[in-house]
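tool=predict chain=A
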Amino acid sequence: MSSLLEAIANYPYEGLTRELLSLGMSWVVIKTGTLEPDAEELADSLEGALRDRAKAHTSKMGRNDGSSFDKVLKVWFNRSAPETYGELFELVVTETVKLLRNGLLDPRASLTSVRVDKNGTYLGVEFDGQTSKQPGKKPKAEYYAILPAIIKQPEYYERQSGFLVPTTGQKAQIRLDPLWFSFVALGFFTGFAGFVGGRYYLITKPGLEGFWPYEVEDIVVRGLLPITEAGIRGRLSLSTEELYEMKLAMKLAEENRDVPEEAYPVVLHVISLEGQVYTELKTVQLDLSGLSRYLNSYVGRIKALSTGGVPLTVELKEPKYPLWALVDVAEKELSRGVTGDGEMLAYIFVKDLYRAINSGNKRLIEDSLFRLFRQGRALLGSKKSKRKTSSELEKVLRAFMWKPHMEVLL
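tool=predict ok
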């Protein structure tokens, strides 16, 4: 037997790759209830986890990745590389399950082998398609897969550097055997929160292994998955952190999803192709617990009023809750670059309310809403004002400041 906890503890780096490995391994812990799975348990859990996850819409592989994976997949599985990263991850997990069931891959040897040398990091055993063995003093790179470009963190692209260490230091290429690659693949599918506008959104839970084996299902299945699925279904992209968190919490409220508070904080990784290199543009820590409590109550109150014959929606292209519509207008302001005295009014309103809600202080929420009400009334009531307020914002503000809606907000 070999321990998943020991395997992840031996991984030498912090950051996205470790978080994905931990996510992938968590499915084995959830489905087997053990930290020391045998080959059959690993095969069953990997297969079940892959079946449970929705297919991810991903980009096509770059030329370098396509060529590299074509070579190693032919060695491992006698298969050619597919077109997209999503298909690549699915293929690796599917074929690794077969290797485990046929006794061609020894999970104990794989999990206990983590080697770091001047040429990089090697996770697992050398696998030539028929036999696996512990790497020697000089591991054979052709028997390992490289870490895919969409997962590599910026410091891993060419050389890693540390404090007072020049960037010409140790080469940090990460190479994986089929089992370790399968963990990364399942971690990617679990953390995947959308591919929008050429950017990947991945949401992870650092230190997830600290919840093994008893609490991990609450964190992953009841916590992380509702969040990532909300991101996918809403096709949410990051303009600002406030708007992204508001829209994510709104989607969860719409779907009546209660995320356990212990699931927070999670980390959002935004990865984009910049020039010829995938770059992690932003890493944001998310805690939606305060927003979700407020917005769940907001939606519940509006539904109760609607049932009683008081509809609280604003008609734009489609009926929306006034707060939802205000966030949409704020996002449009940012994308269009509004000018004039009315610049970014909706965004300022939303940002102010976002901060008040997250404070958890009812008085601050009241102050924020009354400030919005006073400013909105001044905008709508001043016919002679030279402010350039969009008709869309005016329509949203009228619905927003309607007395029954203000009572819901308060």
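Residues 159 and 168 are 6 Å apart (CA to CA). Residues 362-381 form the longest helix (20 residues).
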